[in-house]
Amino acid sequence: MPSKNVAIGGISTECSSYSPLYQKESDFTSLDGEALLDLIDFPFNEYDLVAYPIFFNKSVPGGPIEGEYFEQIKDKFIEQLKQIDNLDGVLLLMHGAMLVNGIDDPEGEWISSVRKAVGKDCIISVSFDLHGQITNKIIENIDAFTAFRTAPHIDVIDTYRRASIILARALKDNYRPCVVWSPIPLLVSGEMSSTFMEPCYSIYQSLELYDQEPNILDSNLMIGYVWADTKRATAAAVVTCTNQNSGAVVCKNIANQYWDCRKNLKSDMKTGGIKDAINWLGGDFSIIADSGDNPTAGGVGDRADILKEVLESEIKDTLFAGIASKSAYDELKQGKKFNLGGSFGGGGPSLELLAESVYFENKCAVVKVKNSTIIISSIRRPFHNMADFTKLKIDLKDFKLLIVKSGYLSPELQELLAPSFMVLSDGAVNQDLKSIENINRNKKIYPFQDFSDFTPQVSNGLILIN
Ligand SMILES: [Zn+2]
User: Fold this and answer.
1) pLDDT digit string (tens) for 78-96?
2) How far is the CA of 258 from the centre of ligand 1 (A)?
3) What is the distance in A from the centroid of ligand 1 to the CA of 27?
4) Dist. CA 262 → ligand 1 center (Å)
5) What are the residues facing 337 on neighbouring strands?
6) Cα of 52 to ligand 1 centre, how many Å?
7) Which of 24, 136, 385, 403 has the most CB atoms less than 10 A away?
8) Residue 255 neighbours by CB under 8 Å, 6+ apart
């Protein structure tokens, strides 16, 4: 039997409505060719499939994507897709939380353009981040759906694998899966819905049990993305199945399970204001997360609110990791005086500081000011892994307090088992949800509105399934 052809690629980012920073081409890194196949790491040849990598573009989450770049990169993807003859399948790697002004549903646009290019017989299998958004336009144009089942995400490659297996088996055994979904009018932050704690821990465990049921291929709970004030923002249950009615039953169960525990969705860390965090500090090595400015959720990463308070409180042996500022980095190349805070447009206080010492490493300036060490990064980026510190010749053992721009702590920082506090700080990804602007989101959505009546409605993207 001749082999079949599959194309692989996509685009992934998360866009906050509250960030002033528009994402453009230079914000994205691109993987293609062998590097993209290595990322997926799936033995397509064992299923008589030939894989054609297109490209996978990814950025550090930020503000909305510039419309021109979105159109241009989508057209480029479709052009390259059309150049592959006799396509039988497409594996799409998406995040699900893109925001492009003037386009209600960017992933829906991308996926429907892929469908138009490959025709109705081609099987499209997608992998999403569980913080992505779902719409009828997305569902009606795909045949299989998988999303991460961990947050913080430690199953990215596993999820690519789940999407690949469904695609490969369907092509090898000649059947066509389908996808059904139910929106759930509930939007919270990733920190309130971590899969490593209840109530989400148990719900995500139950997804594996649903997968064992007849006609069910892959069950998902989408938390959605709370910091995009868009009409499509919602949580959702999404099920890949071989029978829509079986899929609908599982969809309703997942939707009800999540809805019923909405009042228990809370952060696993202590939370409060900056002053609360400072008062909370004990003698042990501790971590404070500056959550409103977390770049991995879409924050700008340039705010100096917490730095200001810590310097004023004269707290000793503190490491700030880090604050993004190209202008401060350039100033420090010239001398000891520098200004920090809001230099990428993220707002907050601006501080005029004097460096007692400074060295440069890996596009960062490591500065000593009073009793604090500040990592000033010339680009927006997180400092969530041990390697981020060792590359800068920094040993965390030299500090009593680490301040990171983060929501829930990354797995590597969690492993330090340090007392931790999440500051509900200002910024593009403010965790104080009731205080954020809410103009375009559908009404009603919990917790923006408090209500209790919800009955899941399941759809295949075109019609309701009972
Ligand atoms: Zn995510």
Assistant:
1) 999 999 999 999 999 999 9
2) 18
3) 18
4) 19
5) 354
6) 26
7) 403
8) 182, 184, 236, 237, 454, 456
The span from the CA of 358 to the CA of 177, in Å, is 58
Please state the pTM of the whole predicted model: 0.91
> Ligand 1 center to residue 313 CA distance, Å?
34
What lies within 8 Å, CB to CB, of 234 at 6+ separation is 133, 134, 183, 184, 185, 186, 187, 224, 442, 445
Query: Tokens at residue 225, please?
Result: 């993305």
Residue 388 predicted with pLDDT over 90: yes
Instruction: State yes or no: pLDDT of 1 exceeds 70.
Output: no
Give, in order, the Cα–Cα distances in Å from 71 to each of 24, 42, 67, 107: 11, 30, 6, 12
Q: What is the tens place of the pLDDT at every residue in 184-204?
A: 999 999 999 999 999 999 999
Q: What is the 3-state secondary structure (H, E, C) of 314-367?
A: CCCCEEEEEEECHHHHHHHHHCCEEEECCCCCCCCCCEEEECCEEEEECCEEEE
- C-alpha of residue 436 to centroid of ligand 1, in Å: 20
Categorize the per-residue pLDDT at 246 as very low, low, confident or very high, splitting at 50, 70 and 90. very high
Q: What is the distance between the terminal CA atoms of the chain, rounded to a whole angstrom?
A: 39
Maximum Cα interatomic distance, the chain, rounded to a whole number of Å = 73
Q: What is the pLDDT of residues 341-353, one digit of tens each?
A: 999 999 999 999 9
- 151 C-alpha to ligand 1 centroid (Å): 7
Write the DSSP symbol of residue 155: -
CA of 225 to the centre of ligand 1 (A): 8
In this predicted structure, what is the pLDDT of residue 172? 96
- Cα–ligand 1 centroid distance for 131 (angstroms): 5
Backbone angles phi, psi at 194, to 5 degrees: -60, 140
Q: What is the mean pLDDT of residues 229-254?
A: 98
DSSP string, 261-311: TGGG---SSEEE-HHHHHHH--SS-EEEEEGGG-TTTT--S---HHHHHHH
Which of 327, 336, 402 lies closest to 369, judged by CA? 336
Cα of 173 vs centre of ligand 1, distance in Å, is 33
Q: Rounded to the nearest whole angstrom, what is the distance from the C-alpha of residue 224 to the centroid of ligand 1?
A: 9
HSE toward the beta carbon, residue 65, CA cutoff 13 A: 31
128 C-alpha vs ligand 1 centroid, how far in Å? Answer: 9
CA distance 374 to 368: 6
Distant-in-sequence, close-in-space partners of 83: CB < 8 Å, separation ≥ 6: none
Distance 280 CA to ligand 1 centre (A): 29
Gap from CA of 420 to ligand 1 centroid (Å): 21
Residue 434 carries which DSSP code? G
